[in-house]
Design a protein that fits this description.
The complex is a heterodimer of chains A (113) and B (113).
Chain A (H helix, E strand, L loop, with lengths): L2 E5 L2 E4 L5 E8 L5 E7 L6 E8 L2 E4 L6 E6 L2 E6 L8 E8 L8 E2 L3 E5 L1
Parallel strand pairs in A: 2-11
Antiparallel strand pairs in A: 1-3, 3-8, 4-5, 4-9, 5-6, 7-8, 9-10, 9-11
Chain B lengths: L3 E4 L2 E5 L4 E7 L6 E7 L6 E7 L4 E4 L2 E6 L4 E6 L8 E7 L9 E2 L3 E6 L1
Parallel strand pairs in B: 2-11
Antiparallel strand pairs in B: 1-3, 3-8, 4-5, 4-9, 6-7, 7-8, 9-10, 9-11
The chains are: A mainly beta (113), B mainly beta (113).
Chain lengths: 113, 113
């Protein structure tokens, strides 16, 4: 069966510090990978998605970047965090073939102070 | 692009009553409509989905109905229980390799004793 892992689960960082959130998927190959952000009490905002290694599409301009160094690994980064980067970050995956159900990770809560 | 509207934003029901959450979508080519449940501090989990070739789908106490002519779909929860309290998201997508889910803004359901 497929599983998605996301870490760290919680993170408190000062303004101006770097960020790295990591996501890996097991049990499948060539997944589509996504990063979403959820501000407190708000909906799901798609930040980045990737259909293959090195292929990243950005949905909104921002202080963040994403990379996909391996087929099942997706990384969300920032060189200098802003207060507005605080939120709940969710990684997700699906596949074009088969049932194509979007499955989310457990999330990473980032607080920027 | 697709636009999904979800109502109500908050819903409070007594235990044992039914709850209904409604969504409308704009893209007539959308043909896949999932519903996600997000408990506090966790990632959204798929609870039920429907594809455009059917009008209704049931899974125990939850059901989803789809009206393609009117471009709206609804989630019905019967005999609500306290553990049904969560945020629920609807979404829509059309078939295609480049197609991504568009989410509604979420409904916070509170089941009171």
């Amino acid at each position: 069966s497929q599983t998605i892992h996301q870490w760290p689960a919680t993170l408190v960082q000062p303004v101006g510090s770097p960020l790295s959130l990591e996501c890996t998927v097991e049990g499948t190959s060539n997944p589509n990978l996504y990063w979403y952000r959820q501000a407190a009490g708000r909906g799901l905002q798609l930040l980045f998605y990737s259909v293959g290694i090195g292929q990243i599409s950005s949905e909104v301009p921002q202080n963040l970047s994403a990379s996909r160094p391996q087929d099942r690994q997706f990384i969300l980064s920032s060189k200098k965090l802003l207060l507005s980067d605080s939120g709940f970050y969710l990684c997700a995956w699906d596949r074009v073939t088969g049932a194509n159900v979007l499955t989310f990770g457990a999330g990473s809560r980032l607080t920027v102070l | 692009g697709e636009n999904v509207e979800q109502h109500p934003s908050t819903l409070s029901v007594q235990e044992g009553d039914s709850a209904v959450i409604k969504c409308t979508y704009s893209d007539s080519a959308s043909n896949y409509f999932p519903w996600y449940k997000q408990e506090l501090g966790k990632g959204p989990q798929l609870i039920i989905d429907i594809r455009s070739n059917v009008g209704e789908k049931k899974d125990q106490r939850i059901a989803v109905t789809l009206n393609k002519t009117a471009k709206h779909f609804s989630l019905h929860i019967t005999e609500t229980q306290p553990e049904d309290s969560a945020v629920y998201f609807c979404a829509a997508r059309r078939t295609g390799t480049a197609s991504k889910l568009t989410f509604g803004t979420g409904t916070r359901l509170q089941v009171t004793l």
